[in-house]
Fold this protein.
Amino acid sequence: MKAKRTIITFGDMRVGKDSDRSKRTPTVRKIKSAIVAVDRTKSPAGARPRVETGSSAVADLGAPTAPRPTLAEQAALDRIDLSIDLAPARGASEHGGLILANPILVASGTFGYGVEYGEVVDVQRLGAICCKGTTLRPRAGNAPPRVTETPGGMLNSIGLQNPGVDAVIEKYGPIWQTWKVPVIVNVAGESIEDYVEVARRLDGVPGVAGIELNISCPNVGKGGLQFAIDRDAARAVTAAVRRATELPLLVKLSPNVADVRPIAKAIEEAGADAITAINTLSGLAVSPDRTRAFLGNTYGGLSGPAIKPVALRIVYEVAQVVSIPIVAIGGVTSLDDVLDFLACGAVAVQVGTAIFADPELPVRLGDQLRAECLRRGFDSYRPFIGTALPKRTGASSAKGVEYRP
Ligand SMILES: Cc1cc2nc3c(=O)[nH]c(=O)nc-3n(C[C@H](O)[C@H](O)[C@H](O)COP(=O)(O)O)c2cc1C
């Protein structure tokens, strides 16, 4: 992700005697990766004023160069409640909910099975880990190339490469069991039977805290139509998995639909405990010689900062039509992004692509959120949730599309 491409431009493209292209000296400039995490708390243009506490520790807490907070500041920070239950409806039942110590999770496909980052990240300080997409049988994934960088993001077509659910349980279950951080297994399949069987095998496995259904998969029973773009298919797969497991169940929305709200409602009605939004946007890159699509799989999923406005819009719309918790994902690189998603109704946030450039970012965001609560005089982060949503129920954004190009 540190790639810096060299691009060559010609200063003046006008036709005329002084603008003969062959005579001009090309301008060579480097463009930096767009996925480098930014810390807007340090920017003069940042939305939040700096805190006046007599110490800079609270203002900068969580920043890479932050000084250590004083003992009194640390005690105040420790009192702030960042916990969240992602399955509150089950919380009261004998099965319990899905309680996270903080609302910053790592997104599926960008943090492996958690163990890979053990050397560089204190994984126990994450809110939760959503592991790589897991299928019933092992999958080799798509043909290469599988990733390419794009302005403000990346395209991937990994194709759910994974060793299959039994191998995941055998290899990682015993490790996850010893962890404090909850691990949510991301589940994919090509038929309802696939999803149900994976869920059934995960049910009751020590170390598995919940399931996140990746329903952006072709449904072979419906001629390859994705579960995520069809309300009835989304409802059916959610209901079937709900019957197969007592585990907390999150279902992940695809942005590749005209209106996500009926799908989100169907998922809620079918018994999901929470909704995660969003998965990647369908995209395409062209090979350098322009003779074919670049990715081996032709299509890829767009992720990174470029998709944040789409993710915000979807979270904003879904928050107005469901009452189960929403976990937001899409282009998070800073505390401002986290606060934006909370303002649009999310109760927690996942970090994905940004991890490739900055694996410690999710842990830092948790610290920064805590510091922001202290700065604002909040004893929990709850007051940040939903502040940007329409103040009256039944706003047009709960029904129609506000903007039509
Ligand atoms: C390399 C890569 C692999 C991914 N694999 C999965 C996956 O297996 N299952 C899934 O539900 N989402 C997968 N995603 C989607 C992310 O979890 C996330 O929804 C998306 O990247 C948007 O978040 P971001 O902009 O922060 O990356 C993957 C994303 C990337 C970049």
Summary: The pocket of flavin mononucleotide is lined by residues 107-110, 132-133, 156, 158, 160, 186, 214, 252, 279-280, 303-304, 307, 329-332, 351-354 (CB under 6 Å).
